[in-house]
Write a structure and sequence with these properties.
Two copies of one chain form a homodimer.
Chain A: H1 6-23, H2 34-48, E1 52-56, E2 63-68, E3 73-80, E4 100-102, E5 105-107, H3 115-128, E6 137-144, H4 154-160, H5 162-165, E7 169-172, E8 176-177, E9 183-186, E10 188-189, E11 191-200, E12 206-207, H6 217-228, H7 246-256, H8 262-270, H9 282-290, E13 294-303, E14 312-313, E15 316-325, H10 331-344, E16 351-358, E17 361-362, H11 368-381, E18 386-388, H12 398-403, E19 408-410, E20 414-415, E21 426-428, H13 429-449
Helix pairs in contact in A: 1-3, 1-13, 3-13, 11-13
């Protein structure tokens, strides 16, 4: 049913939709007029399919709302048109903002996260459209432009449009195919605290001949880092592992029994990593990844970072830290614990700029949209999907699961080597096509299951 | 004698010579055709005064040799036409590569270090020229273009031209006027080891959702830094303080009795620093600065250092370290100790790129060129100079003092707030004029003292 058209429409959407999306450098960390340009493209793509489109704003980049169908069963699809910065540029084999197809793979910033999913879902809707009334479906899109910087204004948009966003099931932005060919479906996403912390020494850089007497903040930031995490990867901030939802942990433990560590081991091996952090293995590695909060340094800089040499005592040293939270953990409480701990250890003068802050959200495996998605995956991929209690990554899914109360399932067109957030981000053509099928089937299943 | 002309010639050289020198961005850390352009300008300036000029090379940037006079008393003057990188650009109040005069100060990259000294010394020679035979003097210039990157090819040039470089006294590139109006004369410069050290994790950046299991080299580099130096600024590498020349230390201790800590305290206060590293005060601070080796981090970088947020586990973390050595210490021995120590503490995989490496050199205070310089300072500045056993900074003076056996004295046109290596580098007009006088008088005194 319907699937005969998939390959043709998918192919058309890769060249007509995805290529255009990739071309606009919608890097939300940079901002600029490209963000509006990206939102306008998304609006016009939705309109051309017949969607009723509204553009909203919570004070940040535009959020595109689109709605089609008049059925009683409503599915909300969340995506984002913004992408991560492309650097380090020199490690890309082709221009990150030009879609290139090589050896069955589609390359470009955002093809996996998350423009490829926008294109695939539009293809699915185009195919399903003639049957939408017969399925008694209404499909809504919400496509934001700040996901990669922590969705700072999305909460406002959701609060302001609770009625419009009402739905009985939802599909989250992303997902990927594992090495063994199974689709990985995530039923939750971690929360996020992203902040930049700086320490200062002198009020300007000084000739490093004076280093014996002028304090260099690099030594202090190094000490601060060793106080944050031990050599086995355990976060040393008191209370960092507190507050985790018991029910989530219990359900999660059970779900992890069905999860294979093989993909992670293969990934580590491809990355040249001999062992996981702290030497953890098997289910303990899965637990750390899918059930526990984390603290990471995404960036570190001080003084001269150009080529060759410059001899200075730098005046500042800065770190960019991302903390990922799990269900039950409150971002303000955890951030408070981190700051209190650092201040108690001699870093009263730390300067902190919070870039984003939101909690985790998740859906229980028995919800109709999850069942619809699992069934669709078995058909589209020919094999039972892997269902994770929580993705390793973050996303503001709590706005939908916790605030709006919509059960959400995750799925997408990436694969295990998609290099999300990294140079040479790519997806496989076959996964794009199967991803289109999976969305079609999920919607059909959902229409069948719900009353 | 001669000094009536100083103000006029100094003024002319500021506008005609220094302005032109500043205009060429001879940043040796960047390289490029500007280096040859800088050398050509220096050559033509020397030629226009009547110098016999030869351009030499040791495989790197051109080294300009110039000689004038035929007397039996030879003085060798060392300078460099290269400069430090100007960044952080945004902290400059005017273009670093355009000389600007504001409120009696001359601004631009290199005006203190070291283009201002080139211009001042050319002015001194222009004034002295009619009398050079009568003084029985021969003056030689050696002006290199790699001092700010550790003079990697100067040793070769010196070895290849030992005969040409023969002299009975020498004047080093730089010096400055203290807050109390005294000229500071340095009788030595520290040695230098500049290296970049990197640690690797995965072979590419990875989405930071995987941080619980994929090693991040930032944590290791932080730990490495805490093993290099304690909180009081003591270097923890075994043997780091070994091998220091006893005689230098003894003479140095005596000389420090005449050195006033006030300038350093005022500098720290202007920099917003409440206390020196480790809380040291008085002669202990002077000892650390002028008699002891040091280890500093000039730069530190890993992962995303742009604006906003990017969430990755960085694949590499790097530090740029400058080590400054004192007389008696062998660079290869100290570098060996650092690497052996790091390897013994779990950093066998450290990748090191050495940018420069040379020992310290110094001159004893009783040498004729030093006496000539001290007497000249009393006359030019109206007050006894401060004489330091060693500058806080480095320079390849050992090639002259140790290899060629030429006693060297240091003097120059900077002042205590010249912001050497930093934004808004500047000198005072009055110091330029007094610096010209000081060079003239040093040469006259030297001619009178020596036979």
């Amino acid at each position: 049913m319907f699937l005969g058209e998939v390959e043709r429409i998918a192919g058309k959407n890769i060249s007509d939709v995805l290529a255009k999306l990739v071309e606009i450098p919608t890097v939300s960390a940079w901002g600029g007029s490209e963000m509006v340009e990206g939102a306008n493209l998304v609006s016009s793509l939705l309109k051309s399919l017949g969607f009723r489109v509204e553009v909203k704003s919570g004070g940040g980049n535009p959020v595109v709302f689109g709605e089609i169908g008049d059925g009683s069963k409503t599915v909300l699809i969340y995506n984002h048109y913004d992408v991560q910065p492309p650097d380090p540029m020199e490690l890309w084999d082709s221009d990150p903002f030009e879609m290139v197809i090589r050896d069955g793979r589609i390359y470009g910033r955002g093809v996996a996260d998350n423009k490829g999913n926008i294109a695939a879902r539009l293809a699915a809707l185009e195919i399903l459209l003639p049957h939408i009334d017969e399925l008694d479906l209404k499909v809504k899109f919400i496509i934001e432009g700040e996901e990669e910087v922590g969705s700072p204004t999305l909460a406002r948009v959701v609060e302001d449009n609770r009625e419009w966003l009402r739905a009985s099931g939802g599909i989250w932005e992303t997902g990927y195919v594992k090495r063994d060919g199974r689709l990985s479906i995530s039923l939750g996403f971690k929360g996020m605290i992203y902040f930049e912390a700086s320490l200062r020494g002198a009020n300007r850089d000084v000739h490093s001949g004076y280093s014996p007497i002028i304090p260099n903040p690099v030594w202090r930031i190094a000490r601060m880092l060793t106080l944050l995490k031990d050599e086995n990867g355990n976060v040393l901030v008191p209370g960092f592992y507190d507050g985790i939802d018991r029910e989530f942990l219990e359900t999660g433990e059970i779900m992890l029994r069905e999860v294979d560590i093989g993909d992670l081991e293969a990934m580590a091996s491809a990355l040249g990593i001999k062992e996981f952090v702290g030497g953890v293995r098997g289910v303990e590695a899965l637990r750390r990844l899918y059930l526990m909060p984390s603290l990471n340094v995404s960036g570190l800089y001080s003084g001269y970072t150009g080529k060759g040499s410059k001899t200075i005592v730098p005046s500042t040293a800065s770190i960019k830290i991302d903390v990922r939270l799990v269900p039950g953990q409150k971002p303000d409480v955890i951030m408070g614990s981190i700051l209190e701990y650092l201040k108690s250890r001699g870093f009263q003068d730390i300067e902190v700029k919070i870039e984003s802050m939101y909690p985790s959200g998740y859906t229980k495996p028995g919800e109709p949209i999850v069942k619809a998605s699992i069934g669709a995956a078995l058909e589209a991929y020919g094999v039972k999907p892997e269902v994770l209690p929580m993705a390793a990554g973050s996303g503001p899914i709590y706005l939908f699961t916790n605030i709006l109360g919509i059960p959400m399932t995750g799925a997408g067109v990436g694969y295990y080597d998609s290099r999300v957030h990294a140079p040479n981000e790519n997806i496989r053509l076959e996964d794009f096509i199967r991803g289109v099928k999976h969305i079609i089937l999920t919607l059909i299943n959902f229409a069948a299951i719900t009353r």
